[in-house]
Amino acid sequence: MSRLHIFDMDGTLLHGSSANIELARQLDLVAEFQALDAAFGSGEIDTYDYAEHAHGMWSSLTPEILGRAFAGAPWLAGIREVWADITDRGEHCAVISLAPGFFVERLLEWGVHAAHGSRFPALPFREPVDMAGILGPPDKVRIADLLCAEYGLTRADCVAYGDSMSDTDLFAVVPRSVAVNADHHVSGLASHAYSGRDLREAYALTRTGGVTGR
């Protein structure tokens, strides 16, 4: 039986960090983005407000800066190996994140079959952000359903990996999930829990035989 493995990125594939914070390190805007994250976490702003503020603060962002942020980010070990194992088994894997798509989509080079994030204009920005392309937590379920239809699968065939409030909608509709370095929002929903820095170990929780190539 085939499966679709769906991975969150911020706080999940990225250990203790997010795409926005890694970009902020390159732009010397960490404090500003931490404040933005706090406002979002408290419900003071929504994903659309966040995107509008971020778009403004990323006015000097270039593909070169993006490349440095991506390369220097604290990725979990074993990401490529996990996705290669999934592919070798004839299964599917995807990343669905609320983070900017221009960051998320770089993971396609690592072997993931699909990568979806919030849509921003091409870098460097010359256009305003189109809010129709900004994702919220329910969009993770919507995109998962689209991928299932593409691959001939259903929600019953999905495994979700996530860490926080943005993953609760998806965790609620799939039969198997792994809370990866997670907070209280998903720890009670997940069928498995993992704390550490190697995705192969989290992935092995969903496999009776572990993961190949470790």
Radius of gyration (CA) equals: 17 Å
- Name the CATH superfamily assignment of the largest domain: HAD superfamily/HAD-like
> Briefly, what CATH class of the largest domain?
Alpha Beta
Main sheet summary:
6 strands, parallel
Secondary structure tally, helices: 10
Beta-strand percent range: 5-15%
CATH topology of the largest domain, what is it called?
Rossmann fold
Helical content class: 25-40%
**Average pLDDT over all residues:** 94
Given helix and strand content, the structural type is alpha/beta
The ordered H/E elements are EHHHHHEHEHEHEHEH
Termini, distance in Å?
23 Å
> Quick one: overall form?
globular
Number of domains: 2
Describe the structure.
It is built from 10 helices and 6 strands, in the order βαααααβαβαβαβαβα. It is α/β, with parallel strands linked by helices. The protein folds into 2 domains: 4-16 and 75-204, Rossmann fold (3-Layer(aba) Sandwich); 19-71. A 6-stranded parallel sheet has the order 3-2-1-4-5-6, with helices on both faces. α1 (19-27) packs antiparallel against α2 (30-41), α1 (19-27) packs across α4 and α2 runs antiparallel to α3 (47-57). The longest helix is centred in the last third of the chain and has 15 residues, at 137-151. It is globular.
